[in-house]
Design a protein that fits this description.
The complex is a heterotrimer of chains A (103), B (100) and C (543). With 100 residues, chain B is mainly alpha-helical. Chain B contains three helices and no strands. Chain B is elongated. Chain C has 543 residues and is of the alpha+beta class. The chains are: A mainly alpha (103), B mainly alpha (100), C alpha+beta (543).
């Protein structure tokens, strides 16, 4: 389950970082190049598909769909708060969550 | 502050829209769902169930429409006309024996 | 309307939402708790033992007890303790009725080890809280269903219009900018709404479908006619339960339930039996239907149907039926979330909490937007505005306090008073009433601080009350690995902490500018700006 959450969270991170507004919450002094933005956005969509496939494998397609929607709600809400209050933590969590899941 | 004529007219218009939306919308949603239940090629109970499932969506759409449209007059007509037409069709279907 | 599509939809969203917001908050908050209704039930009945029996034991005990209490019944129903919904063995029975009337019904929780009925303190438990979610309280159910239905329709409108008027819904998806007054409240309201939008839409539409037969009777009548018989015909055809087998009125022993369960478990796997539905027990025409655990949002179980006397498997009934029924069952199944495992259940709880906060922030946003202009008025804020502000405080913080009071009453009311379970609920509504009155006596901003502190104490001290009145307190439950009790106590503690954090934050902001908490008539532009900032600084975490 932690892996599923980690995937959902990573998706949200990628899609949010593809926007200048949020990129600059994490790296205030950097500029978001259009190429990086596209890369992050595409990566986000790929991660979204991966998350769906993972959840479907875990619980079947019906429950998997419900699960993924729930995970995204939690991940997106958490990310929005972290991006403001603790952007570095937000970033670290992308790596920490799957690690915790694999352990 | 005294209420200007415009003020009163605005409040009256809003009140009318609310009434038309709630009552007229309910009427349209029901008639549309009933007609649908008569026309759907499934068992009677399934058709009724389908009509019921869709009725809330129709109701929501109707209410939004009443507030989106430019004049109250148009709102009122725009609900009543389809309701009457669909209702007539439903009645015809019922009395001609096609519908249950 | 004249001003354009977005503006007219905005009007519908604002006024539609405001007019029923407090009832919707009640419905959402009790519904949120409903996802843990069984857990709350158990916490409120600390005397109940943990059930550690085997399936064979449960069946034997259940059958014996049913034989004792309901011999010759029309129907028996057994819920073995195999899933989260039924932590203890539960039995139902329905006796035959006379002349088409429904027979006497009864149900009991049974101790699987002793075979006696389980007794616990008289309490409505989590079930009562959950039932308020659709049936309110103190009202006839029909009236309540209509009120909840109308509010749900308004909710549906609010959701759809909300999406329509949200111009930058994708761009603002992760946006939250606190400390900016009205902008922050809007950000939070949007965030809560959009991140859990699929849930909000599903829960509202499915809520309407739950009671759709009440709300849309004309559609049924147009095909089946009016009257109770017509309605019954519709239900019989729709739910196609098949012909109910009549009693033969010749006694015959019920075949071994254990053997039937063994066949079911062989097909489905261990612990997959959710219920046993026995028609005409003790009669020659007995039937036993064994239902499977729910493993998908479809709110119907596959069933194995056995001849009650010979034990022979007669039918393997799939759960899926016609398309419209399946759509209905899926909507209802998604709404109730009975199929959800622990993680998914917590996600349901979280999404529902986001929805509750969405409603709260919407109501607060309404006042925050208008407060600066209202404070400038010669005689202070309008009556309507003050009513909304009081109702907001009294509901958004008052209702949580009232629910905590319900739990306090559960622990503190003497066990032997008459109508004890009713009194627990009375306490809840009395406290809510007090919370609704309180804002009228106090400056509204200070009122928020006060009630937030009360909420912090009401929740934070509950685990201590638990420890003082029972032995199923946090220390014990952690030691024994009783995650149900530990979970409830920990959630109460966390809730108390969050309320305390909010109270502290708001209190500090108010202290920074003594003139900030103003109901004053003085036309002070600076004060109003700072006031807006104080209000924005208050943590949006109000539930």
């Amino acid at each position: 389950m932690l892996i599923a959450f980690a995937l959902a969270y990573a998706t949200c991170m990628a899609l949010s970082l593809a926007m200048t507004r949020h990129f600059q919450q994490v790296w205030p002094r950097q500029k978001l190049s259009p190429r990086l933005a596209t890369f992050l956005r595409n990566g986000g969509w790929i991660l979204l598909v991966l998350t769906l496939v993972y959840c479907a494998k875990l619980e079947g397609i019906a429950v998997g769909l419900v699960l993924i929607l729930g995970l995204f709600s939690a991940a997106a809400f958490l990310l929005a708060l972290l991006l403001h209050y603790a952007p570095r933590v937000a970033l670290v969590l992308v790596f920490a969550a799957p690690l915790a899941g694999l352990l | 502050m005294t209420k200007t004529a415009l003020d009163i007219r605005y409040r009256w218009e809003i009140t009318l829209r609310v009434i038309v939306a709630i009552l007229g919308g309910y009427a349209l949603a029901n008639i549309a769902a009933i007609l649908l239940s008569y026309l759907l090629p499934m068992s009677k109970s399934d058709a009724v169930m389908t009509g019921i499932l869709l009725s809330f969506a129709i109701y929501t759409g109707a209410i939004m429409w009443v507030f989106a449209v430019r004049s109250v007059h148009k709102a009122w007509l725009g609900l009543i006309a389809p309701t009457l037409v669909l209702g007539a069709v439903a009645l015809v279907l019922k009395f001609s024996g096609v519908a249950p | 309307m004249k001003n354009g599509f977005r503006q007219s939809m905005s009007w519908v969203h604002t006024w539609g939402g405001l007019s029923v917001g407090w009832i919707l908050f009640f419905v959402f908050l009790t519904g949120t708790l409903g996802y843990f209704d069984t857990e709350i039930d158990r916490w409120m009945k600390p005397e109940l033992p943990k059930d550690t029996s085997t399936m064979a034991q449960s069946l034997a005990v259940a059958e014996a007890r049913l034989q004792q209490k309901a011999e010759g019944a029309e129907r028996w129903f057994i819920n073995p303790p195999t899933n989260r919904d039924n932590p203890n063995l539960r039995i139902f029975w329905q006796m035959s009725g006379k002349d088409g009337e429904r027979g006497v019904r009864g149900n009991e929780l049974v101790d699987s080890t002793t075979g006696d009925a389980l007794s616990s303190r008289a309490t409505g438990g989590g079930q009562t809280l959950y039932q308020m979610h659709y049936a309110l309280h103190y009202l006839p159910t029909d009236v309540a269903y209509w009120i909840v239905g109308i509010c749900s329709m308004f909710m549906l409108l609010a959701i759809v219009t909300g999406v329509v008027i949200h111009k930058k819904i994708f761009k603002d998806f992760f946006t939250f900018r606190p400390q900016k007054g009205q902008r922050s409240w809007l950000d939070m309201h949007n965030l809560l709404s959009v991140t859990a939008l699929p849930f909000h839409f599903m829960i509202t539409y499915s809520g309407l479908i739950f009671l759709a037969f009440t709300y849309m009777p004309l559609i049924v009548a147009s095909s089946y006619g009016t009257g109770d018989d017509a309605e019954r015909k519709f239900f019989d055809e729709l739910f196609a339960e098949g012909n109910k087998i009549e009693r033969a009125n010749s006694p015959a022993n019920l075949a071994s339930l254990g053997a039937m369960v063994a066949i079911a478990e062989a097909r489905w796997g261990e612990n997959q039996v959710r219920y046993l539905d026995i028609d005409n027990p003790g009669d020659a025409n007995a039937r036993v239907s064994i239902g499977r655990q729910l493993d998908s949002p479809l709110r119907a179980s596959p069933e194995l149907i056995f001849d009650g006397v010979s034990g022979e498997l007669l039918n393997d009934k799939a759960a899926a039926t016609s398309a419209p029924r399946t759509v209905r069952d899926t909507f209802l199944g998604l709404h109730e979330g009975l199929f959800a495992n622990t993680v998914l259940r917590w996600l349901y709880f979280l999404s529902s909490l986001l929805g509750t906060a969405m409603i709260a922030t919407g109501m607060i946003l309404w006042t925050v937007k208008r407060r600066p202009a209202q404070l400038k008025k010669a005689n202070g804020p309008d009556f309507g505005h003050r009513v909304v502000e009081s109702l907001n405080l009294g509901t958004i913080v008052g209702l949580p306090i009232a629910i905590a009071a319900y739990f306090w009453a559960n622990r503190l009311l003497p066990l032997d008073i008459a109508a004890r379970s009713n009194w627990e609920v009375h306490v809840m509504f009395l406290v809510w009433f007090a919370a609704l009155i309180y804002p009228l006596t106090r400056n509204i901003m200070r009122g928020w601080v006060d009630l937030l502190w009360v909420a912090a104490a009401a929740y934070g001290f509950l685990p201590i009350v638990n420890a003082l009145t029972t032995d199923r307190h946090l220390a014990n439950s952690l030691a024994q690995g009783d995650w149900l009790f530990a979970g409830v106590d920990l959630t109460l503690l966390i809730t108390g902490t969050l309320f305390a954090a909010a109270a502290l934050k708001l209190q500090r902001r108010l202290q920074q500018t003594p003139a900030a908490a103003a109901n004053s008539n003085k036309n002070n532009g600076d004060n109003n700006n700072m006031l807006a900032q104080k209000i924005s600084a208050q943590s949006p975490e109000a539930t």
